[in-house]
Amino acid sequence: MSLLDDLNGTMAWIPNTSIAGSWMQIDAGESMNIVGIITQGRDPVFHSPFVTEFTVEYQLGNALGTRVALLEKFEMINGSKKEHLFITPVYA
Asked: Disulfide: which of 45, 53, 65, 83 matches 59 by Cβ 3.0-4.6 Å?
C-alpha cells in the first residue's frame, strides 16, 4: 500500500500543471526485482483530468545511477485499478 492508496478512490497524485511530462519518483527502499506497477484512476465524482498514458524509467542507486527507459507505453482507460506488467522485470 502507499500513501496514495485509498479504498474510496479519493486520494490521488496530481501534478502542479496539466502539461505532458509531469512525473513522480518512487523509491522502493531497497534493490529488488520489479515486475510491474498498479495504477488506479480517480473516482469519476471528482471529474478531474487523469493520466491516459505513461512511460516508466528506472535507475539503480543514487541520482548518479543510469536511468533506463522501458520501451513499453502504458494506457489507462478509466478510473478502474489496472496492473501494468513489464515485458521483462527490472532490477532497481
From this structure: 65
53-54 and 74-75 strand pairing: antiparallel
Contacts of residue 4, Cβ cutoff 8 Å, sequence gap at least 6: 11, 12, 13
Residue 40 confidence (pLDDT): 75
10-residue mean pLDDT profile of the chain (92 residues): values are 56 73 82 86 64 82 71 76 86 84
Are 86 and 35 within 8 A, CB to CB? Answer: yes
Name residues whose C-beta falls within 8 Å of residue 16's C-beta, 6 or more positions apart in sequence: 22
25 touches 67 (CB < 8 A)? no
> Measured at the alpha carbon of residue 52, what is the angle toward residues 29 and 14, in degrees to the nearest 5?
55
d(CA 41, CA 77): 9
Amino acid at 79: G
Looking up cell 497524485 gives 13
